[in-house]
Design a protein that fits this description.
With 228 residues, the protein is mainly alpha-helical. It is 55% helix and 9% strand. It folds into two domains: 87 residues, DNA polymerase, domain 1 (Orthogonal Bundle), CATH 1.10.150; 128 residues, Rossmann fold. The chain contains eleven helices and five strands. The strands form two sheets. Strands 3-4-5 form a three-stranded parallel beta sheet. A two-stranded parallel ribbon has the order 1-2. The longest helix is centred in the N-terminal third of the chain and has 23 residues.
């Protein structure tokens, strides 16, 4: 799912509704701050330092602080985020390379088993898959909040392999984070494939190590999976 596009569109629509006194340029600046706050506080949640609800609340409070406004109550914070969430959900869509990639994969490997391995709560991630029409394409779904493991811990990749009924050496993991996805999977004995749609300093970390494939689009996936 194109999370960045949905977040950007959802935030701009929300800002226009709740902050109509600000200019378009000010909305743009706040959208950048919202992105920064998401990255910071979701990482805190993913590492187990705060709860899922708390990471949402810290994002809203951080935005209020950036605006120089008083901190809202928990109830007001939750209501603010809930309204934003509705606008964010309206923008959920799959990247345009997903359908062709899955079709090409199925044509080459009709019996391939697919799994989702995600750092997050299970319910929101399942809702995203359902909304973009992909819920029935995956045999196994592993969410960190449900299994007590999180990427890049090799154990979460091994659990997915176990549930798929495949050996790690016969599996590959594709993800848009070099550190959490490709390197974590490689440490577990899978083939790590880094989907680099446009790397930033945090995810690139100097580039992939030997043995990790780097692709720019899922249209390159079947070639990356071909025997070397």
């Amino acid at each position: 799912m194109d999370h960045d596009a949905a977040r950007g569109a959802g935030f701009m629509a929300h800002a226009a509704a709740v902050l109509p006194e600000l200019t378009g340029a000010e909305h743009d600046a706040l959208a950048q701050e919202w992105q920064r706050l998401e990255a910071r506080h979701y990482e805190e949640y993913a590492s187990g330092r705060i709860s899922f609800i708390e990471q949402r609340r810290r994002r809203v409070r951080g935005l209020h602080a950036a605006l120089g406004r008083a901190q809202p109550s928990d109830a007001a914070t939750d209501a603010w985020f809930g309204a934003y969430l509705e606008r964010y959900r309206a923008g959920w869509t799959a990247f345009d390379d997903v359908g062709p990639a899955l079709a090409a994969l199925a044509a080459l490997h009709p019996d391939v088993g697919l799994a989702v391995v995600t750092n997050g709560e299970g319910e929101p991630q399942r809702a995203k898959l359902a909304a973009i029409g992909l819920a029935d394409r995956f045999r196994v779904f592993v969410a960190s909040a449900e299994v007590g493991l999180a990427k890049p811990d090799p154990a979460i990749f091994l659990l997915a392999c176990e549930r798929l009924g495949v050996e790690p050496a016969a599996a590959a993991h594709v993800g848009d984070r070099l550190d959490l996805d490709a390197e974590g999977a490689a440490a577990a004995g899978l083939r790590g494939i880094w989907l680099d749609r446009g790397s930033d300093g945090a995810s690139a970390a100097g580039g992939p190590s030997p043995g990790i494939a780097r692709i720019a689009t899922l249209r390159e996936l079947t070639a990356a999976l071909a025997p070397s």
